């Protein structure tokens, strides 16, 4: 045993070498979360699965007073990782040298601010050299997809809820200053402060949205302003929903702008290559008229049409529709709708069918089609949803005293109950 002692010591030292290396990060088998050590400070990177989503002014984000987030458009993304929190003062000090450290040592867990886009670029390059991993700022599309909850999105107006104060530090609650990160509730995939605290630099140059985009878009090709996303302690709730866009000169360094980091692993064993993007919209010609269809992404994507007009119904069938609500064909029983779809299929030589309730619900939830018009005296969708959530919170307490609270249905769902609803606007589906 004596003669093997030095061999055992040598093997032990060899095992310790990886632990003392400069570049340290742990990668769980699931690859869902990366835990990265930077000079004693940990960064948690959350994986966001690739996929498609509708970016911009969807129905859950729509605001008539904003215009820079229009038109809503389809985006395809490859998988990537994004930090669960904004870069903190503690992490900034661990990465940057003494001459470039900000004097914010009294607030180590607050997000770093007063940082320009150029300074953020220096930070990610140094973080890259320390860890050996390709850190960068997220693109605008990556930021919005992650803030919406990625593949687990529940289509909230803010990052994790429809009530901004539960997920973010905004004016006036924030008190005109930053707060420690991760003190509010996270969104669907575990990201904190994507609404409020500080707004965040993105990699992209600012440019207006286009209906058609390439996979993994990275902003405009030319320009002088850089994108900033997310509300801050300086923004009110009305101006902080997830689709809001802002842009600043890259030299700007103010107290309400910080950033978080992202990365894409070059040898990601779970990476799915983004395929060529299908057409976002299609047009079908029917006897001199055009019916417009929009792609509804998903595991089994399909195209859903605009509401069929009374004029088109009459031209195809030769009959007047029973009702002409806002110029749309309504009031037809299901067999007549099916016959109409069959006639359209023969004329256009395309496989058209009547949109089912599930297909309409899916398109509605993803913001592809607008919600149905409501009578003037009917409560708004948002007011009804707020009322329902309040009732849900009060129910456990009411049950203690033997009172049962009645829950109201969402008015959107009330419009779509039953496949045979003759008042349902007619839409066709193309596969």
Write a compact overview of the structure shown.
The protein has 3 domains: 21-263, Alpha-Beta Complex (paralog of FGE (formylglycine-generating enzyme)); 281-372 and 416-430, no CATH class; 381-415, no CATH class. It is 24% helix and 19% strand. The protein contains 9 helices and 19 strands.
Structure, described:
The chain has nine helices and 19 strands. It has three domains: 21-263, paralog of FGE (formylglycine-generating enzyme), CATH 3.90.1580; 281-372 and 416-430, no CATH class; 381-415, no CATH class. The chain is an alpha+beta fold. The relative contact order is 0.12. The radius of gyration is 26 Å and the shape is globular. A six-stranded antiparallel sheet has the order 1-2-3-6-12-7. It has a five-stranded antiparallel sheet with strand order 13-14-15-19-18. A hairpin with a 5-residue loop joins strand 14 and strand 15 (302-305).
